[in-house]
Fold:
Amino acid sequence: MLHNIAKTLMRIGTIWRMLALLSLEESLSNIFTSLLFILGKFARFGIFLGFLLTVSSTLKAAYGLSEHQLILYFVSFNLFDLFGQLLFRGVYMFKGEILSGTFDFVLIKPFPSLLYILLRRFDVLDLPLLVVNAILFGWLVGKQSLTTFLFLGLALMIALSLLIALHVTIAAFYLIFESVNFLTQIYRQLTTMMRFPSRLYHPQVQYLLKFIVPLYFVFQLPSEVVWLAFSTTFWGLAIFLSIGWLWASLFIWQVGLKRYSSASS
Amino acid sequence: MIFSTIKNELATSTFMKISAISTLFKLNFAQEFEFRLAFISYRLASLTHLIATLLIWDVISREQMYSFGYNRGTLLTYFLLANILGALVFSNISQDVQTEISTGSIGQMLVKPISYLRYWLVRDFSTKSLHLLASIIEVAGLILLIRPMIEWRIDVISLILGFCSVGLAMFLYYFVSLSISFTTFFSPEANGWPQRFFAMVVIELLSGMLFPLHIFPSFISQILLILPPAFLLYHPLQLLLGNYSLQMGLLVIGLGLLWLFCFYTLNQWLLNKGLQSRGVYAS
Structure:
């Protein structure tokens, strides 16, 4: 049993490595355009950071939020946002594959179609800014106790599973509703709210960001673990939510697959 | 007799041109609305952007009477109007030009007896009218729902200058967008998307769509205010809201015209250079 699981994981790993190498080759085939992408991402990061620093004194006076905390929220948001794009860029291209009919070729391959859709594109162009944000995150978190690091590890696992669940849900909805488009854009517009601490929003909005679309657990829980203590009930709820979302997203994907009828011409 | 024939010919030709433009406008309108769910989901993404921006600014301005010279009413009015103006200025279909260049289908268009630039301009205006309508409905719905405090100082001269500035912004964005598309001649592999992504990031952040530009320290905002993105949204918005004096309004329009001329020239140069040195891929 264990041997079989290890063998399957090895196979998935090998295929993912090949797909990642192909993506890397594609990105490196035109250095100029790749640099433009990277420059654009750094420009967005820099300009928004400048905006945050500009409004930081206002936020400090109004809510007692320090510059350090504000930047940590922003870096945490960027870290998970970029991580999602680095690994799951394939979801952003999925709609085009359904419309052109190339998804049919994925279905006939002896490889899980969902994994292929999720992992087919390793967007190496997100890597430079991701590394910068990871270093900044480590620096801002600083020295912490072992307990905090354990909770941080748990928060990272919750964030990662919800990140996967959200991307699977988007892919599944694309599969179910063929004429719907721009779901990734709606998701990305919603995530922009997470550049600011969600605890400052109205209670109804906080509720929405925690329980309806659980972006709080993906983008902000890892940064809040550092200076806030959460109850056992809270952690239980967070784990339940992440497992529930992951299960529900896989279920919707299966429904989508059953309903899918080829759109190829 | 000869003069009368020429006059008739001219009248027929003008009528045919107007008829062609109107047909193209209608066809594009119908095409945009062909996949209604796709259109609705696009508008939903735009509405999410507006709501997210309003919520962020609500956090910044909630505890203080004035933030960066704005009170809550003027801030809200700024972003609601920015959404409508954004739909009018930034919505376009002419970005498909870059796909035409990379696939080579631009060749089929260039041999037709129509002006390529005018063709896309008409289609752009058709798309803009649809998105403007949708944006007005969304903002009106939002106003009815949350009943915000709208503060708008109506000033006739500012409004006239504001509308001129909006018209200028539409043409400026058209030539900026086309210039980006024409760079695809020099790098057709990536479909022109990297150049557009970079430009979109810069325009989104520096046009005043997410934050008013004067909130930055004086020396930074002075620079930002003379860059092209500010003429696409921020200056027209300030003029419409009556925040500029007559002199400032005229200066903004003058500088806007200068940028329009620059991008028109760049646009022509890129098109000619691209066609001459790179050619068009066969399709």
